[in-house]
Amino acid sequence: MATLAVSVEKPVNQTKPRNPVAFKALLIFVFLYNARPEDLIPGLSLLPLNKIVAVVAAVALISVLKSRQGKFQLPLEIKFLLALMVQMTITIPFAYWRGGAFNTVFSRFGKGVVVVLLIGMVVENLPQLRKLLYVQAAAVSFVTVASLIVHRTEQGRLVGALGGVFENPNDLAVNLAINWPLCLSFFLLARGPIKKSLWALSLAAILVALTATYSRSGFIAIAVGGLIALWHFGIRGRRIGLVLLAGVGSVVLLLAVPSHYRERLSTILTMKEDIGPHGEMMSGGSSEGRLELLRLSLEMMKNHPLVGVGPGNFPVVAGSWHVAHNTYTEMGAEAGIPALMLFLLYLWAARRNLRWALKSTTYKDDKEFRIFTGALAASFGAYVVGAFFSDTAYNLFPYFLVAYTTGLYRIAYPSPESNRKNLTTRNYTESGSKHAETTALTDGRSRYGIVRASKRKSGAPTFTR
Hints:
Structural class: mainly alpha
Order of helices and strands: HHHHHEEHHHHHHHHHHHHHH
Strand content: under 5%
Largest sheet: 2 strands, antiparallel
Number of helices: 19
Helix content: 55-70%
């Protein structure tokens, strides 16, 4: 009688990366973009670190494409992003300042496209996603603490200590709001008092720094992100202590902040009088100016609906050298309504990834996956709302965020080829081969929620979408 032996390898979430060099290049890029060590370490600024790593990432992307041999099908959100890149490229010849548009598209926005492609193709398991999120959260925590220590200000409002994408108080605040849920996820996963304390310190530092920016957009963004995080981690996760702590902490924070900060927040509704960082009245200059910039961006979108005035050209055309302080209207004004629609579809695809991740069996069975899904959902909500009050179209962190949802989807719904490779080992006799392979594949698919029959019934999409 023939014997039957079935050997199942480690699941896809535990396998080593197929492209370790590309993944390491990705980690380095995320760290350098968020931590900006060249602005802190003397002499390091002489080296174009971001450009060097971007070239390394591009080479890594080419190697990944060659290794896949055309077998990888791009997720829908990446297709939208590539279409957005094409639309922006088309607008360059029609731009008011062509040189500025070219630099914006290929130097600022282009790097994000390369990195998003890398994330979409390289991240295949939970340890990889965890490392990326950890590097970003730790780097932003470092920048936050450094900003509080150095305490550089602009008209009394805290700005990033290291410049770059954190030079503007509002951009710093929105970025802090996006990363706060990620730090919260690592606080919940941390083991031991030291790690818990460090992440708790990071959470507190972000709240203090965000308050010091006096950014109303940052406050709105972190309020939305905090509520979503509270829903996922506190109510849905049945952590009653966290719900009580959030309620008490919110009251204490509102009582601890200066009275003129609360008065400044009240101008979100009135839009009449602005309150400065020292309590001085500012005659509504900021609020009225933002309304005027909003009207101007909508007017540009109306007058240049197809190609806009050129990526990065809004401050020049407006004549005030101010951005529109609204990612959506500025995208439409600078690159046309088609670009705005593609950007919205890109965000919609990310929301769809999160929705399907929440429905997956991996979400139900894996605590770490569940926490990261909740954190990314909170960060995504914070960004979508914060983008109404800040200019983030050419910063990379929103594109990182959407790419992370691609990784979530791949982990929750691995491709059949990936499961066949990672979940089965054909160690059986010839007479029992079919039964052995079927058993291993069925076990793997039922565990990771990718049984084709169940997908057809539930309507869940396959990985290729």
